[in-house]
Amino acid sequence: MGASAERVTAALRTDVLTGALAPGARLTEPLLQERYGTSRVPVREALRALAGEGFVELRPNAGARVAQVPVDDLADLYAVRCVAEGVTAARCAELVAAGRGEDLLAALDRVVEEGFAAVAEGRRADGARLNAEFHERVAAASGARSMAQVLRWASDRIRWAYATTVPQQGQRAWTEHRRIARAIASGDPRRAADAMERHVAASARAFRDPAREAVRG
To answer: In whole angstroms, how far apart are CA 59 and each of 42, 64, 69?
Structure first.
């Protein structure tokens, strides 16, 4: 895949995951060419790539559409995420205990503060981006490559489901993110894993009952 196709694929994936392109939306080549400022070939390659990832449906004689969110799979995806993120958080606490987590802790504190600000100002897109950044930083710093890969796969689909069904995770989620950052900063792997696992479980409950999440904020 060429650089132009990779750029279009990344942009199209982001637009699907954030709900900018809603499930069921038609994806015509002229529309995508104009949207991403590119030619037909990169668009076709991007559509094929995202069809392989399950985010786009390619139907003979019917063109391409954004796929439907796999809501029925969410319980399994959250179970996978709980295990993977518990491991990555524990590994990060071990990093801190070894005296090598200063940069990570500074980055997590920054993301948490920006996340609270995004919620207060109603910046939904920024909130979703910062939420993803928080978890991605923990995964990347952990050094647990296989877990990070599994987590990326599951988290993309969960993020997609949230973007199309729940307005935004609010104060509750960022309070839990702060708790995770402090648990990692303690250097206690069990405490860090527990904080992360509790957060993932709360997110799963919020998805099942979005009205309650909106009230809690």
So the answer is: 19, 6, 17
Mean pLDDT of 16-24: 88
What is the pTM for the complete model shown? 0.75
Q: What is the pLDDT of residues 120-129, one digit of tens each?
A: 998 887 887 8
Task: Please write the tens of the pLDDT for every residue from 141-171.
Answer: 999 888 878 888 887 887 787 676 655 557 8
- Do 169 and 203 form a contact (C-beta atoms < 8 A)? yes
Domains of the chain: 3-66 (1.10.10.10), 71-216 (1.20.120.530)
Task: With CA atoms as reference, report the closest residue to 185 among 151, 152, 141, 143.
Answer: 141
Pairing of strands 63-66, 56-59: antiparallel
> What are the backbone angles phi and psi of residue 119, rounded to the nearest 5°?
-65, -45
Nearest to 94 by CA among 194, 189, 195, 196: 189
Q: Cα(50)–Cα(13) distance, rounded to whole angstroms?
A: 7
Spatial neighbors of 211 by CB under 8 A, at least 6 apart, are none
User: Which amino acid belongs to residue 197?
Assistant: E
Query: Which residue spans within the chain are E strands per DSSP?
Result: 56-59, 63-66
